[in-house]
């Protein structure tokens, strides 16, 4: 096996080069060094993923998320979240967790949620006396929930790579997402008392106040029902769902809330295009490296190695997730999904692990890698916006990260938490 491309990729990662450059350089080395393999195949592999119809969902949902942030949808969800939990200790932190969950139904991007909430709620927490490192930690860990909810972009990508129903994956992420929300809110409650963090409301909201907040956010809260209903009854595909949500968001922002102006559309399109380009460049580079891994039969070799250790489904899941936790420490989440899905899914199917169950665990696991050093993108986003030292952040994030790892362990041990909802919605399946 030619290991040099893989070694170059790892070295460049540790040299802190952009992940797209590290992946692309490793793939290019393979094409240059192989006799009889035309170098022209390299740009062809880079472009291969751009020809995929299912992946059109990524720019569509990304665009929808940007529109929502500019259309008043996010503000109304924030008001709803604060109405529901404003009476609790550490109310801003609790609001952050609940808003991340609600935003998961709108944008599906953890990085976008972390960037937005760092500026919106993170800065407010600092102004009101919250420890700066804790504010960054709660924003970063809450953002892990966002891609677990439909329409999580990781599910779109995994479904395409593993040939698994994206609709099932969307449904499978809901219970784990809410479980993660409850775990973070529980830990936040104890930490808030430790730090002496106060509520923002003197009392619990009345039924009338809650109803008013729900009515104001009703157009935003309709989005997940549109996606789930449409997929459940075959009205549209996941790709088409992205287009539906994008058009719906524009309609609400321009004509219902009227907070999005036609003059702002060019800036919205530009922001969405830049966010999409970042993701698709990583996907393209990983496609080329994946071609090398296919030719060198790395997936088969890894499968044989893991199968020689155990064929017990539970033990195999534990091993896979430990591997994912290690890889998540050095590799960005999208790249990790692209490179590892073709390797792990065949192994999982051989030992009787549901690919839907594995998809949820992989999406959660690689998102957790973004929370902690050394590569964590969520960590860098929140620490950058809130001006927090990585060492201070690392200490503050440990109890919150421990809660999320506890949820991951729970999902490994109890597959029905993941599979019950998709089996109910679509019938027994993968």
Overall description:
The chain has helices at residues 4-14, 19-33, 41-48, 57-70, 73-85, 91-104, 110-127, 132-142, 153-162, 166-172, 174-195, 207-216, 218-232, 238-256, 265-295, 298-309, 313-328, 333-350, 355-368, 377-386, 390-413, 416-426. 75% of the residues lie in helices and 0% in strands. It has 22 helices and no strands. 51% of the residues are buried. α7 runs parallel beside α20 (377-386). The two termini are 33 Å apart. It has 430 residues and is mainly alpha-helical.
Annotation keywords:
430 residues
Topology record:
Blueprint: H1 4-14, H2 19-33, H3 41-48, H4 57-70, H5 73-85, H6 91-104, H7 110-127, H8 132-142, H9 153-162, H10 166-172, H11 174-195, H12 207-216, H13 218-232, H14 238-256, H15 265-295, H16 298-309, H17 313-328, H18 333-350, H19 355-368, H20 377-386, H21 390-413, H22 416-426
- What is the residue-mean pLDDT, rounded to a whole number? 86
Number of strands: 0
As a whole number of angstroms, the C-alpha radius of gyration is 21 Å
Counted up, domains total: 1
Describe the sheet with the most strands.
none
Question: Percent of residues in beta strands?
Answer: under 5%
Number of helices: 22
Low-confidence runs of at least 5 consecutive residues = none
Shape: globular
Q: Report the end-to-end length measured between terminal Cα atoms.
A: 33 Å
Structural class by helix and strand composition? mainly alpha
SSE order, one letter for each helix or strand: HHHHHHHHHHHHHHHHHHHHHH
Fraction of residues in helix: over 70%
């Amino acid at each position: 096996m030619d290991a040099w491309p893989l070694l170059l990729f790892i070295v460049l990662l540790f040299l802190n080069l952009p992940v797209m450059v590290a992946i692309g350089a490793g793939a290019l080395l393979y094409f240059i060094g192989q006799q009889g393999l035309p170098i022209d195949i390299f740009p062809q592999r880079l472009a291969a993923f751009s020809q995929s119809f299912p992946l059109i969902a990524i720019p569509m949902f990304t665009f929808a998320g940007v529109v929502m942030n500019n259309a008043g949808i996010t503000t109304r969800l924030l008001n709803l979240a604060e109405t529901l939990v404003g009476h609790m200790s550490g109310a801003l932190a609790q609001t952050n967790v609940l808003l991340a969950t609600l935003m998961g139904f709108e944008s599906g991007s953890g990085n976008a949620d972390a960037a937005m909430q760092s500026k919106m709620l993170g800065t407010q927490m600092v102004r009101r006396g919250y420890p700066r490192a804790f504010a960054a930690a709660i924003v970063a860990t809450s953002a892990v929930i966002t891609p677990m909810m439909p329409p999580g972009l990781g599910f779109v990508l995994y479904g395409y790579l593993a040939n698994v129903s994206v609709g099932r994956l969307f449904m499978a992420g809901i219970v784990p997402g809410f479980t993660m929300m409850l775990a973070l809110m529980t830990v936040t409650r104890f930490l808030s008392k430790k730090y002496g963090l106060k509520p923002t409301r003197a009392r619990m909201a009345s039924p009338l106040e809650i109803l008013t907040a729900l009515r104001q956010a009703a157009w935003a809260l309709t989005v997940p029902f549109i996606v789930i209903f449409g997929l459940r009854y075959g009205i549209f595909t996941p790709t088409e769902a992205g287009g539906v949500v994008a058009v719906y968001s524009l309609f609400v922002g321009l004509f219902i809330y009227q907070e999005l102006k036609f003059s702002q559309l060019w800036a919205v399109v530009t922001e969405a295009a830049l966010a999409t380009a970042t993701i698709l460049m990583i996907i393209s580079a990983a496609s080329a490296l994946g071609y090398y891994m296919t030719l060198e039969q790395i997936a088969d070799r890894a499968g044989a190695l893991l199968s020689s250790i155990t064929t017990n489904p539970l033990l195999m899941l534990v091993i896979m997730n430990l591997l994912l936790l290690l890889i998540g420490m050095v590799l960005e989440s999208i790249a990790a999904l692209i490179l590892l899905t073709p390797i792990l899914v065949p192994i999982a199917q051989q030992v009787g692990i549901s690919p839907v169950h594995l998809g949820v665990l992989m999406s959660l696991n690689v998102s957790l890698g973004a929370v902690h050093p050394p590569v964590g993108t969520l960590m860098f986003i929140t620490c950058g916006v809130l001006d927090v030292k990585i060492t201070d952040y690392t200490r503050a994030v440990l109890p919150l990260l421990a809660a999320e790892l506890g949820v991951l362990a729970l999902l490994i041990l109890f597959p029905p938490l993941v599979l019950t909802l998709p089996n109910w919605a679509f019938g027994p399946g993968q």
